[in-house]
Amino acid sequence: MRNFDYAAPTSLAEAASLLARAPGTARVLAGGTDLIVQLRENVREADLVVDVKRIPELTELAYSAGTGLHLGASTPCYRIYEDPAVSAAYPALADAARIIGGWQISSRASVGGNLCNSSPAGDSLAPLLALDARCVIVGLDGTREVAAADFCTAPGRNVLAKGELLAKLVFPAPAPKASSAYERFIPRNEMDIAVAGASSWVQLNAAGDTIIDARVALSAVAPTVRLATAANRWLVGQPAVEATFERAGELARESASPISDMRGTVEFRRHLVGVLVKRTLATAVARALAGE
Prior knowledge:
The structure is a single chain. The protein has 3 domains: 5-51, Uridine Diphospho-n-acetylenolpyruvylglucosamine Reductase, domain 2, CATH 3.30.43.10; 56-171, Uridine Diphospho-n-acetylenolpyruvylglucosamine Reductase, domain 3, CATH 3.30.465; 178-290, CO dehydrogenase flavoprotein, C-terminal domain (Enolase-like, domain 1, 2-Layer Sandwich), CATH 3.30.390. 32% of the residues lie in helices and 25% in strands. The longest helix has 25 residues, at 266-290. Helix 9 (229-235) runs antiparallel to helix 10 (242-252) and helix 10 runs antiparallel to helix 11 (266-290). The mean pLDDT is 93. A 5-stranded antiparallel β-sheet has the order 4-5-10-6-7. A 4-stranded antiparallel β-sheet has the order 11-12-13-14. Strands 1-3-2 form a 3-stranded parallel β-sheet, with helices on one face. By secondary structure, it is an alpha+beta fold.
């Protein structure tokens, strides 16, 4: 690991100023579970590391049924899945937060950091899209918002400009008769990186037998996490039954553009998309019905 300067600001304005005025490359350290490894293995370089854990807004977790969830970008994963109200309102997010490393990692790692790392296989990214989250970005010129679906632009790349940092993620208030789920497939327990992942959010009609809105998102099967657009359009108005889930899985494969690597082939990943979409839709519907 090469030498770098270190700063620990206590406000968003100070952090933005440090990032904007840093000579060379500046990196934000939230939990550090990705960045420290990347720096140590020379995958990424940094002339300045800005530790943002001391900024109160970045560790905020504020939820109400009326206004939704405001999740600070540095809030550790364990606070999500250990919060009963948040887990019940956004189960796909809790599903992902539980499996981002072991308990040592989840005490440091954050959903915001996972998103900024911008790996297409990041576990929390598909739930962000399925749950229609928005990203609040802070810089010297003020604040802007970007849909989570538009945040990542390529493997390891995103929309953050020099001097900007992700402040928080905002999730809509839970809709009636709606729920969500996330699942992934890994090749073995020793390789904790998804071969494919899927997250589904559904809203049912008052009778609970028809899907009136849906969002399915896929991870690890394209250069960035992405919505399964064809499946999402088709699901609206369909009966909430197994045949619907299976057909949606088939349509979701159209949104996948995977590669073959040491974790799996193109064909295997496409197969997994169908399986995981079918499973997460079934789970999301069951959860929505159980919440009546």
